[in-house]
Amino acid sequence: MILCLLPIKYAVVTGSVCKKWRFLWRNLRKLNFDGTGDLIGISRDWRLLNRKRQMYVYQVNDVIGSYNHPMVEEFRIRFDLDNDHRTLIDGWLKFAVKKKVETIELYFVDNEHHTRFLTTYNYNFPLSLSHRNDAVVEIPCL
Q1: Dihedral angle of Cα 66, 68, 69, 71, to the nearest 10 degrees
Q2: 48 contacts 91 by C-beta, under 8 angstroms
Q3: Rounded to the nearest 10 degrees, how much is the dihedral formed by the CA atoms of 126, 25, 60, 72?
Q4: Please, are residues 71 and 29 in contact by the beta-carbon 8 Å criterion?
Q5: Which of its termini does the chain have fewer beta carbons within 10 Å around, N or C?
Q6: Whole-angstrom Cα distance, residue 23 to residue 13?
Q7: What is the mean pLDDT of each run of 10 residues along the chain (142 residues)?
Q8: Which residues is 90 bridged to in the sheet?
Q9: DSSP code of residue 119
Q10: What contacts 112, CB < 8 A, 6 or more positions away?
């Protein structure tokens, strides 16, 4: 299915093209929430960045709330989020674990695609979510 190659934002939109396609995205097993393209050109406009963050969070929550497939192969979150969003991110990770996710990718950079060096802003991954003995967690830099 070609929809699996698209970020979930565009896969959901394809439902407006044809009624038969309206809920096809709900069968995707790869949920790619790559919002880094939305960060281009807003390097110092904090109001716009906050608006983009709100839209991104709404999109992820909306998709997760409507998703009904029992499993997820890949769960990718890519956006300018930090430790202030930990409650939301924790909820998204709990969803992914509940759906028996195989691969999780978290990519939190600032709106200029730089890694944050101040650790107070970095998201702390909740290792308690991993209940499997075979889980591998590679976190080179958050």
Answers
A1: 80
A2: no
A3: 0
A4: yes
A5: N
A6: 10
A7: 59 63 67 85 79 92 89 91 89 92 85 56 70 49 43
A8: none
A9: T
A10: 39, 43
